[in-house]
Design goal:
Helices cover about 35% and strands about 25% of the residues. By secondary structure, it is of the alpha/beta class. The longest helix has 18 residues, at about 200-215.
């Protein structure tokens, strides 16, 4: 059996990086992605590397483990010292022993890191067999132990299940179990909670910290979320354009940030309770390319426009999905995705639907627009009953309601220039000639903060935030009264997220738009909302004005969501809480199930 320990002093760093420079080939030239990076990580210490996409965070981790692509990338300079060895100079055979054994890594998306054709027990056992020389029986016994250690319920049974049978949070626990199976000295966690709901994120952060205390391992935690940094890190390194612009103790960086970019990241983090009774977006500090602060833009406030009749009226909306099985494909059960949902929405108002994945938020948005057909309920837009319209009649009303999706890249045709994508609905509905549409595209791009000249580019030539602005421009092309924004900022970096939220509020103020804002990010919801509806198992369990729901939550599920939000203040780092294995309950019911009548709790 291989040992992960070398004779090193208790006070020696687990990892030391000196002057690391990583380059990528662009055409005939080499361009630096990481430039002159130095850092050290000690036993039982968590060092967070924070920055936006493209800052070099993940490239740093891949460089440490020498997982860069063989062609097109290289470590041009520097040393990576681990247990007395320079990893940059080690032969590949020895690096293979270190990866997954003495240094383990957790990736952002566990489903792409797990083999879908192998059970989780087999995948954990494989690492134990290769690195620790265990027999099949020994490896299975140890795999069960580590699954129990990461709080997988019914671990003995789930050992023989496949990755697709686990939820996102449980798959990430499996990845942590695999990473810790060989008792590594260093754990690299690359955005391990970005795609998770806030409650699952809190569980994973607490789990990593507790396991770190048990093993005394060093942790390199990569994230763009300063709230997560405040929760878990001892020290922080702030990266921008491949270089460290600020580093130090976590308390000092949050209390006295020195670099303008650090202040920008901290400013952009939504903070629960910061909005009070105001719905005005905060002015966002900006920097030029040289890193100098420029005059912050002061966005306009959005104000709900009240009238006698609501813009949108939803009554008893219900959406279910049948589960069929057997030779004759009979209905064995149903997923009660949306159950008896009712609410009104005024012009110029934002109602946010919040809850964990699987609670029915996105299905509600799609059912409103009849992108999926509800089984019951009425939806009225400006008094027109949409549920009674035929598909051809519905097409005439679709222009008044538009949708913005979570992934802007998946929403755009990669073969179509963005100008054509924005103009397409105008031309399809016969609302403009090509010449008029071209002029309107330029005006829409300018309205969402983009140069009209970019209309001739393709989606891959833009950043994530720019692509989302393009999707907003396309939604505005039809001059809608209602926009359903389905996790429209969830995948964006914290500063880009703040810019998009400010843009949505400005557009609402100038155009009188109504938003149904779907999100699991409670802090962003507080910033943008007038009212909030909390969903659980397809039902609204609490609804009311933002200040009331956030300030005095009545339902236990609302309280659970709010308590799980990371606080961007290390001085308020919460006391260690008992870990919960809870996931959102199952919405599958038998075919003959009749739901009982229920009333949600409205906060006045």
């Amino acid at each position: 059996m291989l040992s992960n320990e070398k004779a090193t002093s208790e006070h020696d760093p687990v990892l030391e990086v000196h002057g690391l420079r990583t380059e990528f080939r662009i055409g005939d030239k080499w361009s630096p992605a990481v430039n002159d990076l130095s850092m050290a990580i000690h036993r039982n210490e968590t060092v967070a590397v924070v920055g936006e996409s493209g800052s070099g965070k993940s490239v740093t981790a891949l460089s440490i483990l020498r997982l860069l692509p063989a062609s097109g990338a290289r470590i041009a300079a520097g040393k990576v010292m681990f247990d007395g060895d320079d990893l940059v100079q080690l032969p590949e055979r020895r690096m293979a022993d270190i990866r997954g054994n003495r240094i383990a890594m957790i990736f952002q998306e566990p489903m792409t890191s797990l083999n879908p054709t192998m059970t989780v027990g087999e995948q954990i056992g494989e690492a134990l067999h290769i690195h620790r020389g265990m027999s099949g029986r020994e490896a299975r016994k140890e795999a069960l132990r580590v699954l129990e250690r990461v709080r997988i319920p019914a671990a003995a049974r789930r050992l023989d299940e496949y990755p697709h049978q686990f939820s996102g949070g449980m798959r990430q626990r499996v990845m942590i179990a695999m990473a810790l199976a060989c008792r590594p000295k260093l754990l690299i966690a690359d955005e391990p909670t970005t795609a998770l709901d806030v409650t699952i994120q809190a569980q994973i952060l607490e789990l990593i910290k507790e396991l770190q205390d048990e093993e005394k391992m060093g942790v390199l935690f990569i994230t763009h979320d300063m709230g997560v940094v405040a929760e878990i890190a001892d020290r922080a390194l702030v990266m921008r354009h491949g270089s460290i612009v600020e580093s130090g103790d976590c308390l000092d960086i949050f209390a006295r940030p020195q670099h303008p970019y650090t202040r920008t990241l901290l400013f952009a983090v939504p903070k629960l309770g910061a909005m009070g009774d105001s719905n005005r977006p905060l002015p966002f500090p900006e920097m030029d390319e040289a890193g100098r602060e420029v005059q912050p833009h002061q966005p306009e406030a959005g104000t709900a426009q009240t009238s006698n009749a609501p813009l949108l009226q939803v009554q008893g909306l219900t959406a279910r999905f049948e589960i069929r099985g057997g030779v004759f494909r009979t209905v064995r059960g149903r997923v009660h995705a949306v159950e008896n949902v009712s609410f009104d929405l005024q012009a110029g108002e934002t109602l946010s639907l919040v809850g964990e994945s699987g609670c029915g938020k996105s299905t509600t948005g799609r059912a409103l627009l009849r992108l999926i057909e509800p089984v019951a309920g009425d939806v009225k837009l400006e008094g027109q009953d949409l549920s009674a319209l035929s598909q051809s009649a519905l097409q005439k009303h679709r222009g008044r309601m538009q949708m913005i999706f979570q992934d802007p890249f998946a929403s755009l045709d990669p073969r179509q220039k963005v100008g054509s994508a924005i103009a397409e609905p105008l031309l399809v509905h016969g609302l403009a000639t090509k010449e008029v549409a071209h002029k309107k595209v330029s005006a829409l791009l300018a309205r969402v903060g983009l140069d009209p000249a970019v209309a001739s580019r393709y989606p891959h030539e833009f950043s994530g935030g720019q692509r989302q602005r393009i999707c907003i421009a396309r939604a505005l092309a039809m001059e809608p009264r209602l926009i359903v924004a389905d996790e429209a900022v969830s995948a964006l970096d914290v500063s880009i997220k703040a810019q998009i939220v400010n843009l949505l509020l400005e557009l609402q103020a100038s155009l009188g738009l109504a938003y149904l804002f779907i999100s699991h990010d409670m802090a962003v919801v507080e910033r943008i909302s007038h009212r909030v509806a909390v969903m659980y198992l397809g039902e609204i369990v609490e609804i009311g004005p933002r200040a009331k729901v956030f300030g005095h939550p009545q339902h236990s599920y609302t309280q659970k969501l709010l308590s799980a939000v990371p606080l961007p203040d290390p001085t308020r780092r919460r006391e260690r809480r008992p870990l919960s294995n809870e996931e959102i309950a199952n919405a599958i019911r038998p075919a003959d199930y009749v739901p009982p009548p229920r009333r949600y709790r409205e906060v006045s």
